[in-house]
Amino acid sequence: MTTGYEDRMAPLDGPFRFACDPSVPCFKECCRDLDLILTPYDILRLKNNLGLSSEVFIEEFVIWDFSHDMGFPTAKLRMSDNAEKLCPFLGDEGCKVYPDRPSACRIYPLARATQKHARFERTTDAYFLVRESHCKGFERGREWTIEDWKKDQGLDEYFEMNDLWTAVVCSPFKEKRGKLADRDIKAIFMAAYNPEMFKQFVFQSTLLSRIEIDRGRVDKIRDDEVELLRFGLDWLRFVLFGESTIEVKS
Ligand code: SF4
Ligand code: SF4
């Protein structure tokens, strides 16, 4: 997979120096004209930050890319329709959704490559430093280890949820499947990107009566959209690829 960053990326094997705050001369310069992928967890956090339903958020802020080899829908943030193509969440003081900014904004200036082993039970990470030419953040600030940066940027929960999405998109069973059908794409839109609709489906269909699921998990997915998303991603691996992430009652 290419990221478009290859010419600016260097493997990271030690600490790096970086600082970004309103005093940098390039402040806000990076928040424009971006090809910014939104993961299902990014969208969940952003739509809740803005107090919007998934449907309204997607209508307003998402453009879809279907170039994935299987036809998986990839959500990308729609930049503003002005000459500078500013990020719609950029305000005078900086990022207006900062506590819930997307994964791609959090991780910069790092990039992460993951390798999955043994049907996604184990992950190996490699990190790279991305040096954008306009970014002055490398000339100042303290030294960071990767672990410190992850902690400071709240990345662990994003990585955990994004890895669950990667487990769907890169299922080891995908070679057997071929292109996704329309009904598969509808299932993905619902379970990964529309928790309100997926919750209705879970609790108003016969699904829960047909699968092995303990009471505690049912309560969690009723009350917590993050748990609902976790369940939705398990469900997608089951319905799209026949993985044993959901157990059907005998
Ligand atoms: S270009 Fe770099 S230093 Fe400047 S605002 Fe963006 S991330 Fe911060
Ligand atoms: S979401 Fe925030 S940090 Fe990310 S590009 Fe937009 S304004 Fe910048």
Bound molecules: iron/sulfur cluster
Broad structural category: alpha+beta
Strand-residue proportion? 15-25%
- Average pLDDT: 93
What is the 3D shape?
globular
Compute the gyration radius: what is it? Answer: 19 Å
Give the oligomeric state: single chain
Strand order across the largest sheet: 1-9-8
DSSP strand count: 12
Number of helical segments with 4 or more residues? 10
Q: Which residues form runs of ≥5 with pLDDT under 50? A: none
- Helix-strand topology string: EEEHHEEEEHEEEHHHHHEHHE
How can the largest sheet be summarized? Answer: 3 strands, antiparallel
The separation of the N and C termini measures 40 Å
Helix fraction, binned, reads 25-40%
Summarize the structure.
This protein has 250 residues and is an alpha+beta fold. Helix content is 39%, strand content 17%. The longest helix is centred in the C-terminal third of the chain and has 17 residues, at 225-241.
